[in-house]
Write a structure and sequence with these properties.
It is built from six helices and twelve strands. It is of the alpha/beta class. The strands form three sheets. A five-stranded antiparallel beta sheet has the order 7-3-5-6-8. α4 packs across α5. The longest helix has 14 residues. The termini are far apart.
Length: about 220
């Protein structure tokens, strides 16, 4: 492979998982105000699956090949002029956004991003674990902090508290100082470990069975 190329997961048509291939594509060049990240891990979300299936052609377009993935974590490999906050070697996690990925998405050796798309990755988890959080974390944070405006001491119920967004939302709500309960269908221990006080199994509990009153429900 040439120095100006890299490996990336791509698909040449819309369809199931069988359309995914690993191929070479041009390595992104870091532009003014951009940061080049060497990807250590990426994760796939439902939006990536729907885009690959062709359910979001209005966003994803019709040109091929396309890359896949919006969540990633890695190490800064190069810094463009004007992106002075970042240093080569910084551990970061990031989110590409819901947009056409072009020939490469987060499932690639490198991504070039604007500085507002990345942040310093936490040091208490592995860089690969960090790659699983960006979209789920942003969804939970914006819903609880910005939309529901959860405050310390408020009673908060998270529905789907053992899923990706839900388990993250339980942690975010707890970090905001809320008293958190969760509704789950399985893996109750995930919600408990995330910080939920009470667990309701929707297989055996209906909304009418929950006597508590909540300040916020997600």
């Amino acid at each position: 492979m040439q120095q100006d190329e890299m490996w990336a997961v791509q698909y040449g048509s819309y369809g199931g998982p069988e359309v995914l291939t690993i191929g070479s594509t041009p390595k992104p060049k870091v532009g003014r105000g951009e940061v080049l990240v060497e990807v250590s891990g990426f994760s796939l979300n439902n939006v990536d699956v729907e885009k690959r299936r062709g359910k979001m052609k209005g966003v994803n377009g019709f040109g091929f090949p396309k890359g896949i993935g919006v969540d990633f974590a890695g190490v800064v490999a190069d810094v463009g002029e004007g992106a002075n906050r970042w240093r080569i070697g910084d551990r970061v996690w990031g989110y590409l956004g819901i947009k056409p990925c072009g020939e490469s998405g987060a499932a690639a050796q490198y991504v070039a991003v604007r500085p507002n798309k990345i942040a310093h990755a936490p040091t208490n988890i592995s860089i690969q674990e960090a790659a699983a959080f960006p979209l789920a974390g942003l969804t939970a944070l914006q819903a609880l902090r910005d939309t529901l405006k959860v405050e310390p001491g408020q009673r908060t119920l998270v529905v789907g508290g053992s899923g990706g967004v839900g388990s993250t939302a339980v942690q975010v709500a707890a970090a905001l100082g809320a008293e958190v309960d969760a509704v789950v269908g399985s893996q109750a221990s995930v919600a408990t470990k995330a910080g939920a006080n009470r667990i309701f199994d929707y297989h055996s509990v209906t909304p009418d069975d929950i006597a508590e009153r909540y300040d916020a429900i997600l």
